[in-house]
Amino acid sequence: MKVSKFATLLVLGLIVATAATGCRKKPGYLTPLPGTTPGTVGDVGPGAPLDTGKTTGSDIKPEDFGGITSNQPGAHFGWLEDASMFKQDTVYFDFDSSAIKSGEKSKIASVADYLKGNTKAAVRVEGHCDERGTEEYNRALGERRALAIREELVRLGIDPTRVDTLSYGEDRPAVQGHDESAWRLNRRGEFILLTPP
Predict the structure, then answer these.
(1) What is the SS3 assignment for the chain?
(2) Is residue 27 part of a domain?
(3) More confident residue, 130 or 17
(4) Has residue 76 been placed in a domain?
(5) How confident is the model at residue 159 (pLDDT cuts 50, 70, 90)?
(6) Is position 7 within any domain?
(7) Quick one: average pLDDT of 169-174?
């Protein structure tokens, strides 16, 4: 009987120890998204269905989002990159949204005009987020922002094989800070000019 109680206590102790060591502590500095509870993902906000571009491991298919196929990974590998060419055309987004604001569409049109005049060039659209939300959520939101810009470029007549997408989520902030003045500059889509070597 004593052995049975000891074995029960030992098993319970192992379960508690395993549960305690298997849990990773969540950073306490993240601001929760409105309308969500910890451990959940909120609504992504308004926006039309997007094409797939380069996904980050999801099971999304091009036919699910307007049929615009993605580029083959590495399609522009080794091409020269210029991050300064379209710096003034950085597209900014509202909080928790991948919808392109009407005031930002002229920037995308400017990039499209350049690409129409330089048919050998391509562009990579990089999606970024502010620090609020989980890393996974922000990576997905950054991808949706890049894909929204790509879809707009395609709508303006740019061949989809000339537009790559990449999401950095919250990993590369344009401005350091923990308030709206920094966050509004970090919710963005940037263009990187790609030219053949």
Answers:
(1) CHHHHHHHHHHHHHHHHHHHHHCCCCCCCCCCCCCCCCCCCCCCCCCCCCCCCCCCCCCCCHHHHCCCCCCCCCCCCCCEEECCCCHHHCEECCCCCCCCCHHHHHHHHHHHHHHHHCCCCEEEEEEECCCCCCHHHHHHHHHHHHHHHHHHHHHCCCCHHHEEEEEEECCCCCCCCCCHHHHHHHCEEEEEEEECC
(2) no
(3) 130
(4) yes
(5) very high
(6) no
(7) 95
